[in-house]
Amino acid sequence: MLDQAMLDDAAALLSALQAKGLTVATAESCTGGLIAAALTAIPGSSASVLAGYVTYSNGAKARMLGVAEATLADHGAVSEPVARQMADTGEIAVRERQ
Fold first, then answer.
1. Burial of 4 (0-12, 13-18, 19+ CB in 10 A)
2. Long-range contacts of 12-16 (CB under 8 A, 24+ apart)
């Protein structure tokens, strides 16, 4: 499932992160962990990849990432407001566990 173009993009992202001393965590749903898989397929990725969350169900989004039930009910799981909450609360969750 991971084609060469995806791996090349992941390697380029990791290289840029490492050059700037930055890290990344993923909060995925419909991608089913593919983004984290592409990143972690690259040797040395542990220097930049902190964590990955795959929250496919609404319950997992709420429990693991703190997405508000109201946002899920009002906008649906596949929506920009839910994706933004996943990113925002996922960032907080990773920071709190470091």
1. exposed
2. 13/39, 14/39, 14/42, 14/44, 14/45, 14/47, 14/48, 14/49
Q: Tell me the residue type at 18.
A: Q
Reported pTM: 0.85
Three-state SS for 29? coil
Contact at 8 Å (CB) between 50 and 96? Answer: no
How does pLDDT run across 38-47, given as a tens digit for each residue?
Answer: 999 999 999 9
Q: Please list the helix, strand and coil fractions of the chain in percent, rounded to the nearest 5, in that order.
A: 60, 10, 30
């993923």: which residue's tokens? 26
Q: Per-residue pLDDT for 2 more than 90? A: yes
| CA pair distance 61, 67, nearest whole angstrom | 6
